[in-house]
């Protein structure tokens, strides 16, 4: 977008540009001119009149004149020849207009492209969630979001609580949900639900007939049907056992979903520690028995997570609102 050598040498500052223009300031040429001043100059070229150009932009003519004078000082060039009969472009002004038209065209493309990106962003939402949240809470929240925004496209990636934060940090998900006992570093969080872990067994298991609460030492010493390491449920259990001075859990069988663990317990494989959300129905209908415990606190918070320093907007904010509405 360079101007010709003859144009560049046609003006030798300091020179005044006519009435009201003020001295030129070539030292200011390193600063970028504002787009609206360039747009005003282009309109002067198109309409042949400063007054008409000002009217097109909805500003007063004196304000337009001051804006072009400031542009001249910034560029170090006389752009308009001001006379009592009006204003016309100088040769330098015509050359700047040619460059400005290309700049404004690219700026318009930038704005249009940004609008398209916002439209796509506001039309879709990528969510990552731990398995317990995805199976027992998210369906109701997403159903409410769907009622509010039927046109919204939602994709859900289900993984364990250890992996959800990385998906959010890398932008693979705009919002995440975890059941980890501690908030992850580098992310903002909000509690969306409370939960507690229960010890459950099949009705035929000896623990189903205990007359006293199960002690934490016995729980820690007994091999259990467990979720995989990195899951929020496994993390919460091991932290609770360590807080109670009993060490980590012992593994009888390790499975990758709450549904698999629950079915293994129902089948008589062994006891498990599971989210109340995952076993509530099975306990109510007698397929599982809740075993009362003592000496251990297995309550936890279920959290939404998003990049630190940002406020959720658009569909992510709407989904967060659905979690509050569902309480």
UniProtKB/TrEMBL annotation:
Top-level taxon = Bacteria
Keyword Nucleotidyltransferase set for record: no
Q: Which UniProt keywords apply?
A: DNA-binding, Transcription, Transcription regulation
Q: Which InterPro entries match?
A: LysR_HTH_N, LysR_subst-bd, WH-like_DNA-bd_sf, WH_DNA-bd_sf
User: Which residues lie in Polar residues bias regions?
Assistant: 1-10
Q: Which family does it belong to?
A: Belongs to the LysR transcriptional regulatory family.
Record's protein name: LysR family transcriptional regulator
Could you tell me which species this protein originates from? Answer: Kitasatospora arboriphila
């Amino acid at each position: 977008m360079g101007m010709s050598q003859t144009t560049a040498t046609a003006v030798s500052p300091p020179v005044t540009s006519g009435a009201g223009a003020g001295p030129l300031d070539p030292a200011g040429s390193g600063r970028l001119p504002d787009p609206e001043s360039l747009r005003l100059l282009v309109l002067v070229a198109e309409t042949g009149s400063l007054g008409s150009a000002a009217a097109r932009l909805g500003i007063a003519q004196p304000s337009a004149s001051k804006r072009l004078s400031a542009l001249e000082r910034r560029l170090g060039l006389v752009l308009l020849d001001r006379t009592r009969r009006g204003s016309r472009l100088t040769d330098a002004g015509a050359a700047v207009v040619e460059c400005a038209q290309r700049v404004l065209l690219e700026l318009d493309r930038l704005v249009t492209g940004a609008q398209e990106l916002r439209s796509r962003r506001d039309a879709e939402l990528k969510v990552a969630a731990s398995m317990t949240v995805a199976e027992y809470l998210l369906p109701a929240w997403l159903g409410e979001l769907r009622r509010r925004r039927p046109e919204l496209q939602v994709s859900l990636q289900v993984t364990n609580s250890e992996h959800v934060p990385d998906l959010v940090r890398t932008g693979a998900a705009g919002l995440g949900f975890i059941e980890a006992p501690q908030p992850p570093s580098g992310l903002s969080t909000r509690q969306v639900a409370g939960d507690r872990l229960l010890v459950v067994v099949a009705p035929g298991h000896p623990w189903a007939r205990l007359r006293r609460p199960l002690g934490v030492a016995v729980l820690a010493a007994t091999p259990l049907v467990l979720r995989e390491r990195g899951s929020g449920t496994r993390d919460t259990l091991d932290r609770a056992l360590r807080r109670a001075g009993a060490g980590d859990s012992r593994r009888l069988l390790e499975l990758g979903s709450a549904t698999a663990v629950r079915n293994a317990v129902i089948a008589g494989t062994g006891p498990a520690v599971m989210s109340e959300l995952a076993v509530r129905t099975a306990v109510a209908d007698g397929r599982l028995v809740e075993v009362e415990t003592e000496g251990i606190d297995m309550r936890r918070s279920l959290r939404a997570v998003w990049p630190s320093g940002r406020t959720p907007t658009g569909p992510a904010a709407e989904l967060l609102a659905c979690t509050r509405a569902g309480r």
